[in-house]
């Protein structure tokens, strides 16, 4: 029997809801992004995000049902992101989902935001089956995860400091490009030389695949300061391309090592940074040398959305992984 899951996401600056059938057929995917509101501050302002989620959540959920051509009666369960993320933002989605679950007497499925990002790959590639290795790189996270089964995840590596997306956003800011920085650097880098400046690639130690992006970030900032002091013009496209190359090389080499160690034949990309054109190209090229194929969701399913939460919720639903109505938001929920 078909199962329809309503997915709700509000962990950062997107209020999103979606209806997904059987874990991979997206009937609707409504995303209300607050990017324009936060742009003027150069990043997400948590208090503003929470307030906007409160305004948006009800119309976004209603629109998701309408676009899917269903009513609350047709929904089998409500899945919601309960962490990690901004606590005030998460609480809006969690409270709304709990109220719906209680009023409709339908199961509530708690979803880990990062597991949601990984699960977006099943929507884009319904045939893919675990085990595989997934690189999750977003504004808040950079993890290499071994996916053993649909709900069995093993963290192989993580960032010791900044997330990859955070580094993209900071460098875009110092280059005066705007927010969010990832797509802007991606675009500008196409006009630059990725080997114009060799920014550092950090390897933590021989036995660790952990990432560190604060070094490359500082190197770019120092480079720009020095040029400014000397009154030298910098070619922003070259800097964007060289910075992007350094980050993407680190993401690729560590992920490839993890895939070889785990002896898997597929690498998946997930999270906002998975939209990066250079990362996709480099990872595909490097993995192909070892017979490993690389998959990723379309950009709309890489950044935060409700469909990935509904898809992850489907697997939780099948396992009977339900939450009570005392479910709380957990801002630093571990994988
Ligand atoms: O997954 P996401 O929407 O939110 C979090 O869970 O954090 O990811 C947003 C992040 C931002 O840092 C944004 O700059 C980055 O993803 N991003 C990109 C690209 N598109 C979005 N980074 C690099 N290249 C892109 N094309
Ligand atoms: Zn995210």
CATH superfamily membership of the largest domain: ATPase, nucleotide binding domain
Please identify the top-level CATH class of the largest domain: Alpha Beta
Say how many strands there are.
Answer: 10
List of distinct ligands in this structure: 5'-O-[(R)-(carboxyoxy)(hydroxy)phosphoryl]adenosine, zinc ion
Rg, nearest Å: 20 Å
CATH fold description of the largest domain:
Nucleotidyltransferase, domain 5
**Strand line-up of the largest beta sheet:** 3-2-1-4-5
Main sheet record: 5 strands, mixed
Structural domains: how many: 2
Q: Approximately how much helix is present in the residues? A: 40-55%
The chain-level structural class is alpha/beta
The end-to-end distance, rounded to whole angstroms, is 30 Å
Mean pLDDT over all positions: 96
How would you sum up this structure, described in words?
This protein is of the alpha/beta class. 45% of the residues lie in helices and 19% in strands. The protein is built from 11 helices and 10 strands. The protein has helices at residues 35-39, 46-68, 87-104, 113-124, 164-174, 181-189, 214-229, 236-262, 277-288, 299-302, 306-319; strands spanning 4-9, 14-21, 25-33, 77-83, 108-112, 132-137, 142-149, 152-158, 266-270, 293-295. It has a 5-stranded mixed sheet with strand order 3-2-1-4-5, sandwiched between helices. The protein has a 5-stranded mixed sheet with strand order 8-7-6-9-10, sandwiched between helices. A hairpin with a 4-residue loop joins strand 1 (4-9) and strand 2. It is globular. The structure holds 5'-O-[(R)-(carboxyoxy)(hydroxy)phosphoryl]adenosine (KG4) and zinc ion. 5'-O-[(R)-(carboxyoxy)(hydroxy)phosphoryl]adenosine is lined by residues 12, 138-140, 165, 168-169, 180-183, 186, 271-273, 275-276, 303-304. The site of zinc ion (ZN) has 5 residues, from helix 4.
């Amino acid at each position: 029997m078909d199962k329809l899951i309503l997915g709700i996401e509000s962990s950062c600056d997107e209020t999103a809801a979606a209806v997904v059938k059987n874990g991979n057929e997206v009937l609707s995917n409504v995303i209300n992004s607050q990017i324009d509101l936060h742009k003027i501050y150069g990043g997400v302002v948590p208090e503003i995000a929470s307030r906007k989620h409160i305004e948006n959540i009800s119309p976004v959920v209603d629109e998701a049902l309408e676009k899917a051509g269903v009513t609350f009666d047709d929904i089998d369960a409500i899945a919601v992101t309960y962490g990690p993320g901004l606590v005030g933002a998460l609480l809006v989605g969690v409270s709304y989902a709990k109220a719906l679950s209680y009023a409709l007497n339908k199961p509530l499925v708690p979803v880990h935001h990062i597991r949601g990002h990984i699960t977006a790959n099943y929507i884009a590639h319904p045939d893919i089956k675990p085990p595989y290795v997934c690189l999750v790189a977003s504004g808040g996270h950079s993890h290499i995860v071994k996916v053993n089964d649909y709900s069995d995840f093993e963290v192989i590596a993580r960032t010791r400091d900044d997330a990859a997306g955070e580094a993209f956003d900071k460098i875009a800011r110092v280059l005066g490009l705007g927010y969010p920085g990832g797509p802007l650097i991606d675009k500008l880098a196409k006009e630059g030389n990725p080997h114009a400046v060799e920014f550092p690639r950090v390897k933590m130690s021989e036995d660790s695949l952990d990432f560190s992006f604060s070094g490359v970030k500082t190197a770019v900032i120092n480079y720009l300061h020095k040029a400014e002091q000397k009154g030298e013009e910098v070619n922003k496209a070259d800097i964007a391309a060289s910075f992007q190359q350094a980050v993407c090389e680190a993401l690729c080499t560590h992920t490839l090592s993890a895939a070889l160690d785990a002896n898997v034949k597929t690498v998946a990309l997930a999270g906002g940074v998975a939209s990066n054109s250079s990362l996709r190209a480099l990872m595909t090229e490097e993995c192909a040398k070892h017979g490993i194929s690389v998959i990723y969701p379309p950009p709309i399913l890489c950044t935060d959305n409700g469909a990935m939460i509904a898809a992850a919720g489907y697997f939780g639903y099948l396992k009977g992984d339900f939450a009570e109505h005392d479910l709380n938001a957990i801002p630093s929920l571990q994988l």
